[in-house]
Amino acid sequence: MHFSALVIMPLDTENIETKVREILSSYNENIEVEPYREYLNYEELEKEIKRLETFPLDKIEKMAADWEVCSNDFETLAKIELEWFEDEVDGIDEKGEYKILTYNPQGKWDWYHFIEFEPVESGTPIPYPCRVADLPQVVPYAIVTPNSEWYELGVDAGIKAFANTLKGNQIVSDEEAEWQLKVQEILAHYSDYLCVALMCHR
Hints:
By secondary structure, the chain is an alpha+beta fold. It contains six helices and eleven strands.
């Protein structure tokens, strides 16, 4: 998926591209790390099972037929929806099923490019880089501080909030409203800093 991110850095930064690479380096999905175990999240699994149980029978039957599983096997269907496939499971221990992985568990992006102007329906496009204090009200999908702290709302709500900002719409959900407040809090803290906008992919 593609998403917009704001990266904040000191106002006197001379080489912006180098600084951005430095700030974002630990979130590069292309970095390989020592093998580690990723466990099935059973809380998410239960939520997904409950979500599937609300689906119409014909939709469940189609999903089951597509994946060649029993239509009453909600656990397997939920695992598939969570992209947890049995042939990728490496073992089971006291914590449950796990995969052995080597990709960066902090990974947020695999490539990005700089945004020079960000269109806003309700006003003049935002030019980047710019001083944080000069930004109009923005609600990016993600924001990264000078000390490499990454904040994001989450895939669905984050994209919706970002789209609402571009269209000049009011933030509607509690989750989006909380994220907007968090963004404004971060930007206020770094008001005398420089920021750039990136279009990222993950």
